[in-house]
Write a structure and sequence with these properties.
alpha+beta, 7 helices, 9 strands
Length: about 210
C-alpha cells in the first residue's frame, strides 16, 4: 500500500471521528443534496468479466449481506464523509489504463499501489466508505456509457435522497440523472450478480481511465 493511500485511510479515520463526536461541527461542514429519484431496475444483467475475476480474488468485496440496509439515510456527517472520500481518492490515485498498468484490456482492482483506472478508483472509495460504517449493500458498482461513448465505471450510493454517483472524472458528487451518462447496469443488492438499468446495449469492458 502506497503512502498516499495510507494517508487517505488515516485522514478518513480522523474525519469520521470528528463528525461522530461533534454533530454541530458536522452540520457546518456540508449541506445535504436535494431529494431525487432512484434508478429503475429492469431485470438481471450479465456481469462484466473483469468484475467476476475480481470477485474470485476479493470475495468479501463482492459479498452481499441482506441484513444490511439497502439505502443510506443521509446526515450531514455521512454526506461530508462521502464527499471527502470522493475527493481524496481522486487525488491520491494516479489514473492509468489497465493495458499500461497490467498489460490487459480490463482488470478490476483496489488500487493498493496508488494506480488504477475508473473502476479501481470506485472500488477503493467503496472499501473506505464501508470501513467508515456505511452499508456496502447500498454502495453499488455501476457501468455507464460516458460522454465519449465509452464504457465507464462509477459508484452508485443508494440513499433516501435518491441515487448519488461517485466518479473519478469529477470530485462533485452528483445525482445520477445529472451526470450526463447513460446508465447500463449495476451490482445487485440481493445477490452476487448484476441488474439492468434499462439499456440493452452493454460495453464489454470498462477500460476507460
Amino acid at each position: 500500500m502506497t503512502a498516499p493511500v495510507r494517508g487517505l485511510i488515516a485522514g478518513l479515520a480522523t474525519l469520521t471521528a470528528l463528525a461522530a463526536g461533534s454533530p454541530a461541527r458536522a452540520q457546518t461542514l456540508a449541506s445535504l443534496p436535494s431529494s431525487g429519484l432512484a434508478a429503475s431496475i429492469t431485470g438481471s444483467a450479465r456481469p462484466i468479466a473483469a468484475w467476476t475475476e475480481f470477485c474470485e480474488r476479493y470475495a468479501s468485496e463482492c459479498a452481499v449481506d441482506r441484513s444490511e440496509a439497502a439505502s443510506i439515510t443521509l446526515t450531514p456527517a455521512i454526506w461530508q464523509t462521502i464527499n471527502t472520500v470522493n475527493r481524496r481518492v481522486n487525488k491520491a490515485i494516479h489514473a492509468v489504463t489497465d493495458q499500461d498498468h497490467w498489460g490487459v484490456a480490463d482488470r478490476w482492482d483496489l488500487a493498493e499501489d496508488g494506480q488504477g483506472d475508473c473502476e479501481d478508483f470506485q472500488l477503493r472509495k467503496r472499501a473506505l466508505l464501508a470501513d467508515a460504517g456505511l452499508p456496502r449493500r447500498a454502495l453499488r458498482m455501476t457501468v455507464v456509457i460516458d460522454e465519449k461513448g465509452e464504457g465507464h465505471a462509477v459508484l452508485t450510493i443508494i440513499t433516501d435522497r435518491g441515487d448519488l454517483v461517485l466518479d473519478n472524472k469529477t470530485s462533485v458528487v452528483l445525482p445520477w440523472r445529472q451526470t450526463g451518462y447513460t446508465f447500463i447496469k449495476r451490482e445487485s443488492q440481493d445477490a452476487v450478480a448484476w441488474v439492468g438499468l434499462g439499456v440493452a446495449i452493454s460495453p464489454v469492458t470498462t477500460a476507460n481511465r
